[in-house]
UniProtKB/TrEMBL annotation:
Gene3D superfamilies named in the record: Isochorismatase-like (3.40.50.850)
Family from the record: Belongs to the isochorismatase family.
A Pfam family the protein falls into: Isochorismatase
Classification via InterPro entries: Isochorismatase-like_dom (IPR000868), Isochorismatase-like_hydrls (IPR050272), Isochorismatase-like_sf (IPR036380)
Keywords: Hydrolase
Chain ranges of the Isochorismatase-like domain: 3-141
Domain of life (superkingdom): Bacteria
The protein's name in its UniProt record: Isochorismatase-like domain-containing protein
Amino acid sequence: MKALLVIDVQNGLVNKGNFQEEISRIEKVIEDFRENKEPVLFMRHLDDTENSPLYKGSAGSELHNSIKKYADHIIEKQTPNSFHNTDLEDILKDLGVTHLFITGFNTEYCCLFTAITAFDRGYKVTFLEDATATVNTAETYEMKGLDIRDFVGSVLYVSNVIEVLEFEEYVEEYKLNKSVED
C-alpha cells in the first residue's frame, strides 16, 4: 500500500516565502491520495527554543491553513528525521504501507533525512522534488547558484535507491484521479 507523508507544512516555514506553487502541488497530491483512499500522514516539527519559527504552542508551529483541513493523522517530531522518537513506523506498519511518497518542508533537512531513513527501513520511497520547498537559499550555504531542491533531488536520484519525480511525472506514473490534476 502507498502512503503520502506531508512533512512540516507549517506557518513558521510557509510564511517565510512565496511557496504557492509548491503548496498547490502538495495539495493536489493530498487530494489524489485521499480520493483513492490511501493514507496521508502529516508531520509537525516542534522546537523547544522560544525564538524558533516552529516553537511549540506558537502560531508558527501550526499546520498551514492550505493543508490543515486534510490533517487526519498528525505526528509530532523534534528532529529532521520523521521516524526518530515518533510512532510513524508503527502507524505505517499498522496500515500495511510499503511505498512512501515524500512532500513538504525543508527539502534538504526533514524531507531528505526522512526519505533516506524510510529507504533504510525497507520502504520503497518516492521523493516528489517539486512538491518540496525550503526557506533556505544558496546564500544560506554560501554556494552561489545552488538550487537546493534540484541538488537534493539529484543526489537522491543518483543513489539509484530512491525514486525522484517532478509533479508531472507523478501524474503520469501514479495518479489515478486525473480530475485533480487541473
